[in-house]
Amino acid sequence: MKETPQDYIKRITTHVEGKRPLEIQAATPKKLARLIKGVPASRLRKRPAPDKWSVNEILAHLAETEIVGSFRMRMILGAPGTPIAAFDQDAWVVSGHYEKRDSRKSLEQFRVLREANLALLKSLTPEQWKHYGMHAERGQETIDHVARMFAGHDLNHIGQVENILVKKK
After folding, report:
1. Contact (CB, 8 A) for 107 and 29
2. Could you please report the per-residue DSSP string of 106-156?
3. In the list 30, 71, 75, 135, which could disulfide-bond 84, CB 3.0-4.6 Å?
4. Which of 72-86, 88-102, 105-119 is the least confident region?
5. How far apart are CA 30 and CA 19, in angstroms?
6. How far apart are the first and last CA of the chain?
7. What residues does 132 pair with on adjacent strands?
C-alpha cells in the first residue's frame, strides 16, 4: 500500500522530534561525505534491491530536493499562501538518470545548495517562519514545517545510506 501524504509527514517529522532542525541540516553534508569516503563508485551505484534506490540515487535525490526546497521557501516568502506543486520522486529518479550521476558531484551540489538555504533560514524574522504555502498533496506548510521536514528527510536518507553501506557482502 502506498504511503499517504499524512503518513509521510508523520514518518519524516518523527525523526526530528526534540531535535534542532537547522543543526541536523547543517551536519548532513559532512555526515554523508564521511559515509561515502573511500567507497568505490560501483558500490555506490548498486541498488540494495530492485525497488530500492542506490546510494548514488539517494545523493542525486537529495541534491534535487534541495533545489525544490529552495524554490518552495522563496515562493512562500515572496508570496505567502502560494500554491506548492508536488512531484513524483520516483519519476525524477528515472527521468533525471540518477543512476548515471557522479555521487560526489551530487553531494557537492547538495552541500552548496544547503549552505545557501541555511543562510536564508538563519536570516528570517520570527514572523517569516510562520509564512506558508499550500502544498498540492499535504496542505498548508509553513517555513518552520518545511525546515523540520527537510531535517527529517535528511535523517531518513542518512539511515538508508548507512543501511546500504554497512550491509555484509
Report:
1. yes
2. HHHHHHHHHHHHHHHHHH--TTGGG-EEEETTTEEEEHHHHHHHHHHHHHH
3. 135
4. 88-102
5. 18
6. 30
7. 142
